[in-house]
Amino acid sequence: MVVDLSGEMVMVTGASRGLGRALAEAYGAAGASLALCARGPELDAVVEGLRGRGVRVVAGQVDVTDANAVAALVRRAEAVAPVSVLVNNASVLGARDALAEYPLDDWRRVVDINVTGALIAAQAVLPGMRAAERGSIINVTSGVGNVARARWGAYGVSKWALEALTYNLALEEKPAGIRVNAVDPGAMGTDMRHAAYPQEDPDSVPAPAQVTGVFLWLASGESDATGERFRAQAWP
User: Fold this and answer.
1) Which helix (H) or strand (E) holds 182?
2) Which of 16, 23, 141, 146 would give a disulfide with 43, using CB separation of 3.0 to 4.6 Å?
């Protein structure tokens, strides 16, 4: 499927590596302008590579839990073009401990980034999407986001919460023409996957660039889906 996103401004959080980087490259190749954020300096190399290919990029080393910083990035992006697509990709794994002994500081950090950060980004882009009467918000969930599994701690619970956020926001924003969906990318060769499964051969799972198809479709005018959960590796 060929997707043309010329004229669109796509915001991707957690864009410095893994799936976020792959999505930034895929959206840029489809003609979109990009608003990218991540917490670390690795983002600079991603931005430099995209700009070298002629992609218009607005970027910042932004923590998604900082509402003021996220709003400032959105304002910078909107000075170029309205943000029509948001991909809430930023997340952290946290401890793989039983809930009865789960460290509360780590719990708060994981939930703040994985859930509250997604809400903060959505709140920042929604006024512009409502004004345009269109938009697509894509929340990156996980295989542990709708199936209970022991010792996945705050990460597993946060992805369940992110899916609930997806479905409730989809209901609320449907009258405004804004679509909200969740995508489970499945097992991928990423740093987070390696931390969760250190004994796994990274070449035994797909690279992030291989699972971007459904994300492109959800960003495009070809999709009218909202309030749904997609498995990237079952697409199409």
Assistant:
1) strand 178-184
2) 16
- Asked if 82 and 76 count as a contact pair (C-beta separation under 8 A), the reply is no
What global pTM score does this model have?
0.97
CATH of the domain at 33: 3.40.50.720
Alpha-carbon distance of 68 to 73, in angstroms, equals: 9
Which residue shows structure tokens 């409730």? Answer: 168
Name the active-site residue from 27, 102, 155, 167. 155
Query: 22-71, pLDDT tens digit by residue?
Result: 999 999 999 999 999 999 999 999 999 999 999 999 999 999 999 999 99
Per the domain annotation, does 117 fall within a domain? yes
102 is catalytic: no
For residue 147, tell me if it sits in a domain: yes
**Buried b or exposed e, range 159-186, using 16+ CB within 10 angstroms:** bbbbbebbbebbeebeeeebbbbbbbbb
Note down the domain range covering 79: 9-234
